[in-house]
Amino acid sequence: MPGVKNVLIPTDLSKLSMSAMPFALDRAEKYDAVIHILHVIDTYTPILTIRTVELTQESINEALFENAKKNLEALLEEHAPNAPVKIVTAIKKGVTHEETIKYANENNIDLITLATHGRTGLLHTLIGSVAEKVIRYAKCPVLVIKPQESK
Q1: How many Cβ atoms sit within 10 Å of the Cβ of residue 16?
Q2: Whose CA is closest to 16, among 73, 59, 75, 66?
Q3: E strands present in 1-151
Q4: In angstroms, rounded to a whole number, what is the distance separating the alpha carbons of residues 47 and 119?
Q5: Residues 38 and 103 sit within 8 Å (Cβ to Cβ)
Q6: Phi-psi region of 94 (alpha: psi -120 to 50; beta: other; left: phi over 0)
Q7: Quick check: 116 and 129 in contact, CB under 8 A?
Q8: Segment 123-142, tens digit of pLDDT
Q9: Residue in 27, 20, 37, 21 with CA at minimum distance from that of residue 4
Q10: Could you report the per-residue pLDDT of 10-59, keeping only the tens digit for each?
Q11: How much of the chain, in percent, has pLDDT values that exceed 70?
């Protein structure tokens, strides 16, 4: 896979999604590439709130962003504490697969490496598959990792 300079790992901040990290690190180290880790705060996430003076949509969005930033830093510390390559992080808000494709296009991503939750049946029908949509619309190769179940 010549010409790989940017590898993207979309993450929902779960340990399962970070199972793509070893594969991305391997490719990035081999080709001296930069790893981009992207988390998308879903626009459609239901938020149940109690109306108070202090609680605004802006404060909720800021809290979601700060929480995502903290969790992303913790995942990096756990899964790539001494990464031999440069790692760039980004947090966006929107529809996950759309923001992933947009980020990939805007940042000249050469390879998207992502883990799938492996949902099937009704759950897959109801919520769809981010991996499936990324594969369908990405302009670059997509490496999909099916994580091993935790023992």
Answers
A1: 18
A2: 75
A3: 6-11, 34-42, 87-94, 111-115, 142-145
A4: 24
A5: yes
A6: left
A7: yes
A8: 444 445 788 889 899 999 99
A9: 27
A10: 999 988 888 889 999 998 999 999 999 999 998 765 555 555 556 677 87
A11: 80
The CA distance from 150 to 130, in Å, is 22
Residue where the block lists tokens 């149940």: 48
Q: Is the pLDDT of residue 98 over 90?
A: yes
Domains contained in the chain, CATH given: 6-145 (3.40.50.620)
Q: What is the CA radius of gyration of the chain?
A: 16
Write out the two tokens for 87: 């790692």
Q: Which residue's structure tokens are 């999909």? A: 144
Angle at 49 between CA 43 and CA 53, to 5 degrees: 110
